[in-house]
């Protein structure tokens, strides 16, 4: 496999200064360097990937065993081998009748039984058959963090036009400000609280759940009756006092950041209804089928991953901006930060040896056009190259505001064009000369207006942000992470890197409370503890 990496690096060394624009001398480039998944279009022609690079990248995917490992994942093999677990979020969206075996048993019937229970509960709440002390449920608070928050919170916002249930709110941060701000103005007698935690031990979630229970107890005689839980730990939800009829379970082979397709999506289901949720699952299923069957050259998850590998490991660009020109996808970058960075931010290979390449990139972003008025300056003229990933819908949900959608789309297309094309010193000089500048001042001012260009981007375009399309997009990103992880040779499904901070936070608590000496701590931590605990304002 090493020789494929080397071949890619050698090829890149020879073409790195070639203008991307020159690749369009080949008239069918846009067609040949794009792929479709039904009505969705992924355009990667505005990158420096040419025929040779594409061939080498696909060969890299082949020799890395992507096809074999894909079959192993979908087939229930324990590919998360530091935790001894299968990786089967795809089973959460598998159709009835398909068999997915884990340890000799088909897991699909239980998944559909839980989905049916979720659907029945959601409809009881939405139709006012399940009530709070004060009557029909008007508000739902989902208390969870990480994978038990980011996915459903992102999707609830994304699917706002499809909301026809109670208002849904999300509390995640252990900062009391979060829960305090969310409950302010809510009526506890008509609020349902969902405690969403795979492990039911996460300190942020359990602390916020206790706070919510106290808030409710001030007005509600039996607060536990207005609580539901989503977890793999039935014993712990029972100990918390939540009736089993409102507990929705899932198995440990669903990773937290991959869990929104099952019970962790309950709050989303309450917002959009079981049918809307089913459409979302159908979108994910559609992408699964494409991922399993399309040749690599046309396989969207594989292509997204290969573009990612090209930019990060071959070109050495260390970050990736995710720029949805879709306001309702404003939480997509945060969701992808967990999905990509918790999955592929590792330093060791499956066998424990040091990774021979860098691991996944820093992922960040904001919706357009807002970002244009904030950080695009650096993307266009900074000294570092940031590959950009644009997302944009052909149509919005506001027919009366179609003119605004046109503006949005024109801005999106303009940005990818500007990044590639740039503006030369000669062009900038001509513009400034027209404004009357001459001599040294003309030259100085023109230099500030040069855009280096040749900055790569991809665009994912889709007809409209429906539940089905959102399901396709999220499954697309999940599989992209899988393919990148396989090529990098790491385990995308554990997250040991979050443990140390959790342990140290627990150890610091008694020091902050003044119950334990901080003598064992380093000088900086001791000084900060001192600042936090001394009485001076
Ligand atoms: O941050 C670590 C993590 O384990 C994530 O992987 C997970 O999504 C999150 O905490 C929440 O965990 P839980 O659902 O068990 O509360």
Gap between N and C termini, in Å?
A: 60 Å
CATH superfamily of the largest domain: Glucose-6-phosphate isomerase like protein, domain 1
What is the SS-derived class? alpha/beta
Strand content: 5-15%
Spatial strand sequence of the major β-sheet: 1-2-15-14-12-13
- Averaging pLDDT over every residue, what do you get? 97
Regions with little confidence, pLDDT below 50 for 5+ residues: none
Per CATH, the class of the largest domain reads: Alpha Beta
Overall description:
With 537 residues, the chain is an alpha/beta fold. 46% of the residues lie in helices and 12% in strands. A hairpin with a 2-residue loop joins β5 and β6 (135-136). The mean pLDDT is 97. It binds 6-O-phosphono-beta-D-fructofuranose.
Task: Briefly say what this structure is.
The chain has 537 residues and is α/β, with parallel strands linked by helices. It is 46% helix and 12% strand.
Comma- or semicolon-separated keywords:
537 residues, alpha/beta, Rossmann fold, 6-stranded mixed beta sheet, 19 helices, 46% helix, 12% strand, globular, binds 6-O-phosphono-beta-D-fructofuranose
SSE layout and pairing:
Layout: H1 2-15, H2 29-32, E1 34-37, E2 40-43, H3 51-63, H4 66-74, E3 101-102, E4 105-106, H5 108-126, E5 131-132, E6 135-136, E7 139-143, H6 150-158, E8 167-171, H7 176-183, E9 191-196, H8 203-217, E10 227-231, H9 234-239, E11 247-249, H10 266-293, H11 300-314, E12 319-325, H12 332-344, E13 362-364, H13 376-381, E14 388-393, H14 402-421, H15 425-434, H16 439-448, E15 457-462, H17 467-488, H18 499-512, H19 523-533
Parallel strand pairs: 7-8, 7-9, 9-10, 10-11, 12-13, 12-14, 14-15
Antiparallel strand pairs: 1-2, 2-15, 3-4, 5-6
Residues 145-148, 197-199, 202, 205, 256-257, 342, 495, 498 line the site of 6-O-phosphono-beta-D-fructofuranose.
């Amino acid at each position: 496999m090493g020789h494929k990496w080397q071949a890619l690096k050698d090829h890149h060394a020879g073409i790195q200064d070639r203008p991307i624009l020159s690749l369009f001398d080949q008239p069918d480039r846009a067609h040949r360097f794009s792929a479709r998944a039904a009505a969705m279009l992924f355009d990667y022609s505005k990158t420096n990937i040419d025929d040779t690079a594409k061939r080498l990248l696909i060969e890299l995917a082949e020799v890395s065993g992507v096809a074999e490992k894909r079959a192993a994942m979908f087939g229930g093999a324990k590919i998360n081998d530091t935790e001894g677990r299968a990786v089967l979020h795809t089973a959460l969206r598998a159709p009835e009748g398909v068999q997915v075996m884990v340890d000799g048993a088909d897991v699909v019937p239980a998944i559909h039984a839980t989905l049916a229970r979720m659907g029945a509960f959601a409809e009881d709440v939405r139709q006012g058959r399940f009530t709070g002390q004060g009557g029909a449920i008007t508000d739902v608070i989902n208390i969870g963090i990480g994978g038990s928050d980011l996915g459903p919170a992102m999707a609830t916002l994304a699917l706002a036009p499809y909301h026809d249930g109670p208002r849904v709110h999300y509390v995640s941060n252990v900062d009391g400000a979060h829960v305090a701000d969310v409950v302010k103005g809510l009526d506890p007698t008509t609020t349902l609280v969902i405690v969403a935690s795979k492990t039911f031990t996460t300190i942020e979630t359990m602390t916020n759940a206790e706070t919510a229970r106290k808030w409710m107890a001030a007005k509600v005689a039996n607060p536990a009756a207005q609580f539901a839980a989503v977890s793999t730990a039935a014993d712990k939800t029972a100990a918390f006092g939540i009736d089993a009829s409102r507990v929705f379970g899932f198995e440990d082979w669903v990773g937290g950041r991959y869990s929104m397709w099952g019970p962790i999506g309950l709050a989303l289901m309450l917002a959009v209804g079981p049918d809307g949720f089913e459409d979302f699952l159908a979108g994910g299923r559609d992408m699964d089928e494409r991922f399993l069957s399309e040749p690599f050259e046309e396989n969207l998850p594989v292509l997204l991953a290969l573009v990612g590998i090209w930019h990060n490991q071959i070109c050495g660009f260390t970050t990736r901006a995710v720029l949805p020109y879709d306001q309702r996808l404003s939480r997509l970058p945060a969701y992808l930060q967990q999905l990509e960075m918790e999955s592929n931010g590792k330093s060791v290979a499956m066998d424990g040896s040091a990774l021979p390449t860098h691991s996944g990139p820093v992922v960040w972003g904001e919706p357009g056009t807002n970002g244009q008025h904030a950080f695009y300056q650096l993307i266009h003229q900074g000294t570092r190259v940031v590959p950009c990933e644009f997302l944009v819908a052909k149509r919005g949900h506001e027919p009366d505001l179609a003119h605004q959608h046109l503006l949005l789309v024109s801005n999106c297309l303009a940005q990818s064009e500007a990044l590639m094309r740039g503006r030369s010193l000669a062009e900038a000089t001509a513009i400034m000369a027209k404004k009357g500048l001459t001599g040294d001042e003309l030259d100085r001012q023109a230099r500030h207006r040069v855009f280096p260009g040749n900055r790569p981007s991809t665009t994912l375009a889709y007809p409209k942000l429906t539940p089905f399309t959102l399901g396709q997009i999220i499954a697309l990103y999940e599989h992209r992470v899988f393919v990148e992880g396989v090529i990098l040779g790491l385990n995308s499904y554990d997250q040991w890197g979050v443990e140390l901070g959790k342990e140290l936070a627990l150890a610091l608590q008694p020091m902050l409370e003044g119950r334990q000496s901080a003598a064992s701590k380093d000088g900086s931590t001791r000084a900060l503890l001192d600042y936090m605990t001394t009485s001076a304002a």
